Amino acid sequence: MKRLFFYIFLLFSLAGCQVKNVHPLAEDFRRLEETLGSIDEYVLAKEGRISAIEETLRDKDLTLQQKYGIYGRLYEEYAPYQFDKARDMLLMQESIADSLSDQVLRTTASLNKAFLYTTAGMFLEASKAFETLDTLSFDYHQKIIWYNAVQRFLTDYQEYMQGSGVAVPGAEKIQSYRNLILENTPEDSYLHRHMAILRLIRDNRWDEAYRANAQLIESLNNKSRDYAVQTYWQGFICYNTDREEEMLRWWIESAICDLQGAIKDNAALCSIAVNLDLPEETERAFRYIRISLDDAVFYNAKLRKVQIASTMPLIEKAYIDAKEQQAKERSHYLFVTMVIAFFLLLVAMVALNLHYTGKSKARTIETKNAQLAQSNASIAEAQETLRKTNLELVEANAAKEEYLGLYLSMCSGYLDKLKKTLPRDQYEAELKNFYKTFDTSFLQLYPSFVEDFNALLQEDCRVALKEGELLNTELRIFALIKLGITQSSHIASLLRYSVNTIYNYRAQVKNSALSDRENFEETVKKIGSKC
Question: Is the pTM of this model over 0.85?
Answer without folding.
Answer: no
